[in-house]
Amino acid sequence: MVKGNVSLQKKLDSACNSILDQVGRGHVADYIPALARIDIKKFGASILTIEGEKASYGDAQESFSIQSISKVFSLTLVLSKIGDELWKRVNHEPSGNSFNSIVQLEMEKGIPRNPFINAGALVLCDILLNGRSTEACLSSILDLFHKVANDETIQIDEEVASSELKTAHRNLSLANFMKSCKNIHHTVQEVLDVYCHQCSIAMNCEQMSRSLLFLSKEGLDPLTNNRIITQEMARRINSIMMLCGHYDASGDFAYRVGLPGKSGVGGGIVVVVPEVGVITVWSPGLNKNGNSLAGSAALEAIARTLNWNIL
Ligand code: GLN
Question: Is the beta carbon of 99 within 6 A of some atom in ligand 1?
Fold first, then answer.
């Protein structure tokens, strides 16, 4: 049961109102043509607690392209399937480089620094394919979304997916390079197909908060009591979000917000507050690291106003 909470709502309103001058700043992710058209002035925020208390602000019910936030879900699936075997093919260190950097991958012989940079996420897709068709793989990814969000309406935005596939030159080169290092086992095209479709899943802030609630309760969905992933795996996912969730700005994000989170170039950011709940923000204007500019400012203000911090 999801309930409204007046004091939570008031605090969310006041935190969001305090950063409205940041909304509309930055640039949209125009390297993906379908995302270039998104209105930069959009701003939404949602909080959902483990008790089912809920607060929303602005465009919290408008769908956005989740982009790299999808990597948290593919990591969840891969860890439940193959566990620590994953770390033979991907590391869990911060990259200190941009999300689509090529240079580090070459120096480190095709082993991506972590599962949240593009190269790492491409390896996750390769593992998830596991000899299946791209359709079967994508349907298992969508099944996870439907299960954790308790919502069957979540879908892939096909227009964004085809726009991404047409312009995925950089991701193609990352995948080809890893293929040459034998760290991609399926065809590069199959891997790209899964990756671009998974990034193109559309959700709103409220759906996103609901989806990752299991990470605030050590892998157990607190509203249904369904175990999504083991306690140990949930802790690991949160640790990787803390250290690697925002690419080369992960340190700055941890310093400012102090909570494990994941951003995407669609302008969404989700953070997990252990034993408390989840906060999602969305605003499409990005900073130079590809993280939502107003979204980061909002999370800093919300975490401070609510005094939610893991430290
Ligand atoms: N689909 C995007 C890309 O591959 C995801 C990047 C992101 O959200 N940081 O470039």
Answer: yes
